[in-house]
C-alpha cells in the first residue's frame, strides 16, 4: 500500500538530477564492489551508491550480518517487513541534514563501482505471460490459431539455467548449436544466425516456501522481494529445431542478462493498476489463481524501452535505434502473484534469491514489440538503421539496452537502471 515513503514531496540532501532513476522514493538495493575490495550491499540514490556496510552503526543491529554479505539472499529472506523498515530508516538518513556528516563519506559514484548479480540464484524460471508476444509468435507458426488451448488457463513457463545469469554489461557470446533450414534434409551445427533479445521483467523471490506447501495467490506478494529488467537472449534458429517436444534448451541457456538493482514493491506501490480486463469469452482464472485484490491491483504501470546500437553507429556517434516502447500492464495476461502461485501450486519450493522472468512483454502496437522475431516478422521484414545497415536479427557488435521506469503525474520517476548486453561473437 502507498505510505509516507512514497510521498513525491520527499527530498534528499544528496543531489539527485531531475529525471534520475533513483530518487529517495526508490532506493533499490544491489551488490557492488570497488577495485579488488569484496562485494557488498549498496543502495542507489541519484548518481551514487550508498555503502550499507559503511553505515552499519546507523542501522538496526539485527540487520548487519545479512547486509554485510556479498549476496542478498539472507537479507531478502527476511521478507518485506525488514525491507520496508530499512527503507524507512534510509529515507530518514538521506533526508535529514543531521545525518549528512556521518552518511556522505559512504557515498560512491556509480561510475566508480562494478555491479554484480545481487543474489546467488539457485533456480531460474521464465514464463510466457505476454499475451501479445505469444499471439505474434504463434501467428508465425499457426496463423489461424496462434494461441494453444491451454494459454488462457495456465501460466506457461520453462525451467531456465541459473548458472548463466549475468549482470548488465557482461558480453554476450554468440551460441552454437544444431540448426535446420526449412528446406534442408538434416540439421547442421554452428553459431546461431538468428540471435535475438527478449524484453522482460524479472521477479526476485524473498521469503521462500516449504516443499509441498503452495503459496496462495493472495499471499504471493509477501514472497516477492522486488523487480528488475531481464533479457532472455534467444537463438531462434536453434530454438526452432529443438523446442519440440520439451521446449527451449540450448537456445536459451547460454545467457540471461539482468539489471543490477532490486526495485522494491513499496517503491512501485503508486503505480499498481487493475489487471487488464479479459476478452469476451476468455475463461475466468481457476480458483487457485483468482483473487479480488490481485484483480484490482495486480498490474504495474511500468514503461519499457529497448534500443539497439551497431558498432558502426557507435563509431559514427549516431543515436541508438529505438526498437520498442510499451507498458508492462498492457502486456501481461497473468500477474506476478499468479506466476508465483502457479509456480508453487504443485508444492514446488521457491528459495530466497530465486529469479522468475515474465516472458517477453509486447504490446498490441507495432511500436511495442519486445523481440526482433516479432519486429522483423521472423526475418521477413528487416529494419533499417540510420547507417543504412539492415537487421532481422543481431549481428556481432550489436548492443541492446533495456530500460524501465514508472512516472507519476508529479513527475516523480522510479527507474530500474539499464540492462545492457553487447554481442561479442562466437567462440
Enumerate the spans where pLDDT stays under 50 for 5 or more consecutive residues. Answer: none
Distance between the termini: 49 Å
Strand content: 25-35%
CATH topology of the largest domain: Fumarylacetoacetate hydrolase, domain 2
Which term fits the overall shape? Answer: globular
Structural class: alpha+beta
Briefly, what CATH class of the largest domain? Alpha Beta
**The CATH H-level homologous superfamily of the largest domain:** Fumarylacetoacetase-like, C-terminal domain
Helical stretch tally: 12
Largest sheet: 8 strands, mixed
* Total of domains: 2
Alpha carbon gyration radius: 21 Å
- CATH architecture type of the largest domain: Alpha-Beta Complex
Strand tally is 26
Helix content: 10-25%
Mean pLDDT level: 97
Descriptive report:
This protein is α+β, with helices and mostly antiparallel strands and 427 residues long. It folds into two domains: 113 residues, Fumarylacetoacetase, N-terminal domain (SH3 type barrels); 302 residues, Fumarylacetoacetate hydrolase, domain 2 (Alpha-Beta Complex), CATH 3.90.850.10. 18% of the residues lie in helices and 26% in strands. The chain contains twelve helices and 26 strands. The longest helix is centred in the first third of the chain and has 16 residues. The radius of gyration is 21 Å and the shape is globular. The model has no long low-confidence stretch (mean pLDDT 97).
Amino acid at each position: 500500500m502507498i505510505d509516507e515513503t512514497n510521498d513525491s514531496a520527499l527530498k534528499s540532501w544528496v543531489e539527485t538530477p531531475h529525471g534520475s532513476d533513483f530518487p529517495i522514493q526508490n532506493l533499490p538495493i544491489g551488490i557492488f564492489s570497488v577495485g579488488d575490495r569484496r562485494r557488498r550491499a549498496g543502495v542507489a540514490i541519484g548518481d551514487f551508491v550508498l555503502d550499507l556496510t559503511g553505515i552499519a552503526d546507523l542501522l538496526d543491529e539485527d540487520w548487519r550480518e545479512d547486509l554485510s554479505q556479498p549476496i542478498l539472499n539472507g537479507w531478502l529472506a527476511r521478507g518485506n517487513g525488514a525491507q520496508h523498515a530499512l527503507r524507512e530508516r534510509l529515507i530518514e538518513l538521506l533526508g535529514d541534514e543531521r545525518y549528512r556528516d556521518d552518511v556522505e563519506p559512504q557515498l560512491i559514484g556509480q561510475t566508480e563501482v562494478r555491479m554484480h548479480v545481487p543474489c546467488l540464484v539457485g533456480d531460474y524460471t521464465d514464463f510466457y505471460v505476454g499475451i501479445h508476444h505469444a499471439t505474434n509468435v504463434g501467428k508465425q507458426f499457426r496463423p489461424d490459431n496462434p494461441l494453444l488451448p491451454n494459454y488462457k488457463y495456465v501460466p506457461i513457463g520453462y525451467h531456465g539455467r541459473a548458472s548463466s545469469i549475468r549482470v548488465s554489461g557482461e558480453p554476450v557470446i554468440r551460441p552454437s548449436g544444431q540448426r535446420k533450414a526449412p528446406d534442408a534434409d538434416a540439421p547442421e551445427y554452428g553459431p546461431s544466425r538468428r540471435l535475438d533479445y527478449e524484453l522482460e521483467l524479472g521477479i526476485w523471490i524473498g521469503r521462500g516456501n516449504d516443499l509441498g506447501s503452495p503459496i496462495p495467490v493472495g499471499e504471493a506478494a509477501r514472497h516477492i522481494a522486488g523487480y528488475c529488467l531481464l533479457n532472455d537472449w534467444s537463438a531462434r534458429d536453434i530454438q526452432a529445431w529443438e523446442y519440440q517436444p520439451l521446449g527451449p534448451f540450448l537456445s536459451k541457456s547460454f545467457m540471461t542478462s539482468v539489471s543490477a538493482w532490486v526495485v522494491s514493491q513499496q517503491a512501485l506501490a503508486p503505480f499498481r493498476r487493475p489487471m487488464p480486463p479479459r476478452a469476451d469469452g476468455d475463461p475466468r482464472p481457476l480458483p487457485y489463481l483468482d483473487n479480488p485484490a490481485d484483480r484490482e491491483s495486480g498490474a504495474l504501470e511500468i514503461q519499457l524501452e529497448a534500443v539497439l546500437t551497431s558498432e558502426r553507429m557507435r563509431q559514427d556517434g549516431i543515436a541508438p535505434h529505438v526498437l520498442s516502447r510499451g507498458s508492462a500492464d498492457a502486456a501481461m495476461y497473468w500477474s506476478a502473484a499468479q506466476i508465483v502461485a502457479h509456480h508453487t501450486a504443485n508444492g514446488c519450493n521457491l528459495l530466497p534469491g530465486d529469479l522468475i522472468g515474465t516472458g517477453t512483454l509486447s504490446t498490441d502496437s507495432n511500436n511495442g514489440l519486445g523481440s526482433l522475431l516479432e519486429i522483423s516478422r521472423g526475418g521477413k521484414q528487416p529494419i533499417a538503421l540510420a547507417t543504412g545497415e539492415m537487421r532481422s536479427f543481431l549481428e556481432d557488435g550489436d548492443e541492446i539496452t533495456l530500460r524501465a521506469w514508472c512516472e507519476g503525474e508529479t513527475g516523480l520517476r522510479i527507474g530500474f537502471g539499464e540492462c545492457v548486453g553487447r554481442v561479442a561473437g562466437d567462440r
